[in-house]
C-alpha cells in the first residue's frame, strides 16, 4: 500500500479562502476580528512563526498587531501588557509566542490571558472545558489534525489511536479530542515500554516527539493513518518530521508530509479560533 497524502497546505488554503469570506461578512456587521501577538526576545524560530501568523491574518482580513518585548522584560511587565490586551475590547485573541525566557513562568503567563481571548486554547479553563467535552477554543495543532482527518472522512469512532508524546499543547489534547470522538486512545511517552508494539496496534498513529525520524515503517500497521507533528531541522537546514516518511508511506493508508502537513493547519486553526473569539462563541 502506498499512502494518500494528507496535504495540510492545500486544505489550509481552502479553509483560509472560506475564512476570508466569513471575515468580510463579519466586517459588514461591524465585527473586526483582531489578534494580538506578543513576542519576547528574538528567537529566530519564534520570529518566523510569528511572521507566518501575521501573513495568514493579512490574507483572511483579520487584523493583527505584534507587541515585541526585549528578552530582558520582567514577568511583571509582561503580565501588565497581557492585562492591557485583556481589557482592550477591540482585541479578540491574544497569543504569547512560546517558549519564553527562563526567568518568566510560562504557566503564570498562560493563566493571565483571558480565557475568552485564549485563541491558543492553553488556558486551564479552556483545557478543563476540553476535558469536559464542552465548547471551547481547541488547541490549534490537535484541532488542525482533527480537521484534516474529518476532511477525508477518516473514521475515528471505535478506532485505536496511539499518540506518541504527551505535551500539554499537542499530545494530551490530541488524545482528548480523539477520545471525545470515541476512539480508544493510548498515550506513549519517553518511559513507555514496547513503543513499537503499541504503535503497531494503531489505526491512527499521531507522532509528536520532536525526534527526527524516530518512527519508521516498522512502527506502522498496514493501512494505518499516520500523522507526523514533528518539526526538526536537519543538518542541511531542511525541515523534516518525527516519522521516516519513505518507509511509513508504504504501510499507511494516509500520511502527513513534513513540511506542508500539520504545520500550516496549526496556523489556520489559530485564525479560526480568532474568528470564533470575535463572534463571542467560546462560551457557547
Ligand atoms: P515536547 O518536547 O513538549 O514533548 C515531546 C514528547 O515526546 C514528550 O511527551 C516526550 O515524553 C515524548 N518523547 C520524547 N522522546 C521519546 C521517546 N524516545 N519515546 C517516546 N516518547 C518520547 O514537544 P511538543 O509536543 O511541543 O512538540 C513535539 C514535536 O512537534 C516537536 O518537533 C515540535 O517542534 C513539533 N510541533 C509541531 C507543531 C506543528 O504545528 N506542526 C506544533 C507544535 C509542536 P516525556 O513526556 O516522557 O518527556
Automatic annotation (TrEMBL):
GO cellular component, one term: cytosol
Entry-linked InterPro entries: Aminoacid_DH-like_N_sf, NAD(P)-bd_dom_sf, THF_DH/CycHdrlase, THF_DH/CycHdrlase_cat_dom, THF_DH/CycHdrlase_NAD-bd_dom
MF terms (GO), sorted A to Z: methenyltetrahydrofolate cyclohydrolase activity; methylenetetrahydrofolate dehydrogenase (NADP+) activity
Gene3D superfamilies, alphabetized: Leucine Dehydrogenase, chain A, domain 1, NAD(P)-binding Rossmann-like Domain
E.C. number(s) listed in UniProt: 1.5.1.5, 3.5.4.9
Catalyses which reaction(s): (6R)-5,10-methenyltetrahydrofolate + H2O = (6R)-10-formyltetrahydrofolate + H(+); (6R)-5,10-methylene-5,6,7,8-tetrahydrofolate + NADP(+) = (6R)-5,10-methenyltetrahydrofolate + NADPH
Keywords: Amino-acid biosynthesis, Histidine biosynthesis, Hydrolase, Methionine biosynthesis, Multifunctional enzyme, NADP, One-carbon metabolism, Oxidoreductase, Purine biosynthesis
Domain Tetrahydrofolate dehydrogenase/cyclohydrolase NAD(P)-binding: 139-279
GO BP term (any one): L-histidine biosynthetic process
Domain Tetrahydrofolate dehydrogenase/cyclohydrolase catalytic as annotated: residue spans: 6-120
Positions that bind NADP(+): 165-167, 231
Pathway info: One-carbon metabolism; tetrahydrofolate interconversion
Subunit-level organization: Homodimer.
Function: Catalyzes the oxidation of 5,10-methylenetetrahydrofolate to 5,10-methenyltetrahydrofolate and then the hydrolysis of 5,10-methenyltetrahydrofolate to 10-formyltetrahydrofolate.
HAMAP family xrefs: THF_DHG_CYH (MF_01576)
Family the entry assigns: Belongs to the tetrahydrofolate dehydrogenase/cyclohydrolase family.
Protein name, UniProt field: Bifunctional protein FolD
